[in-house]
Sequence to fold (420 residues):
Amino acid sequence: MPDALWAGSAPDATAANAGVWAEIIGQQAVVAQLQRAVAAAHRLSGAHQEQDMTHAWLLAGPPGSGRSTSALAFAAALQCADSGCGQCRSCRLVLSGAHPDVELVIPTSVAYRADEIRGLVEQAQMMPALGSWLIIIIEDADRLNDASANALLKALEEPTPHTVWMLCAPSAADVLPTIASRTRQLTLRTPPMELVVDVVCRRYNVPAEAAELAARASQGHIGRARVLATDPQARARRQDVLAIPGELVSLPACFAAARRLVDTAQADADAVCAPLDAADEEALAAAFGDGAEGKGIGTLASRSRSESARLRKAQESRARRVLRDQFDRVLADLTGFYRDVLMLQAGSGSAAFNPDVAARTAALASASTMQETVARLSVLREAGVRLRTNAAPLLVFESALVGLWRPGTTAPAARGTVPA
Ligand SMILES: [Zn+2]
Fold:
């Protein structure tokens, strides 16, 4: 079935793939629908009467399929006078997560709290500060529980004309039916490996072999593949992470590796955020300096103050998100490593995710049992869940690495999932 979607979809081939849409890979049907919505939205003057545009969207797709990227591109295109040129100040503010009218929300604990959602609903009543729309992107919408979903229902049923809600989740089935039924659903798929290789290769001018390795190592996650293919430091970080299974020979070694992982992730996150923070502040200052036509200077000054406060909040939220991405990356790299081990043990002929460390995965495959590998993969899954509940990262990684060293000893929750 996916073939029909990719048919005739050479990346970069048309204007449909330009501007803010360029980062969305292998999702032609979704992009076409979003572009129709943007065109309809630009014909509207505040009222939702165009069929192609609606006020509540659900972008569903597995991690790496680009659901947040798609939501941000859609938001940028709605705000941009040129339907998502990718170059203007508005586009840049949206894509960097600093546009005052585009709120990107991630849950701060295992489920969204009702008061958190009520705050957003209240915010949705305000008029946009710079753009034509007030856009609220809710990531991990599968973590809306009955109470927080209830707080959102009314806003979805009786939307403010200028507000657009975009919900992101792994699949529509993961979202409460009361919520899902009030949204227009778009389904994204993990792009096929060949397409990821092709895009990385051509767009970033990377030799085919390196693009292939990056696409495999990232398990088809396009954003990660791009970083691996183009950033030597990211490749070095991956090698550090893939060395960890070999270092876990004692309790102190596990603790030392956990400490190193967490410190490195924090340093990397800081390095990502610092230049973005500086650029946002500059862009926002410019936006309020140049956009003063027809508005009272006093109003503008007070708006500017409230926007800087909002920007600080957005920056803190971005810092949390970037750090979370760093931890996700570590877990994904380790998971790919142990999946390779499992495939060897199971005698599966599938291509390895990490062909460059094949000797190490082969050694571990013969030195351990399949059941141990399954338990190790459970330990990593469990660590991902615990990080999302905001458990202290160092404790989570200490416990995970001890669990990888001696599977089954410190992760009782994982034991039950090991098949007999
Ligand atoms: Zn633009």
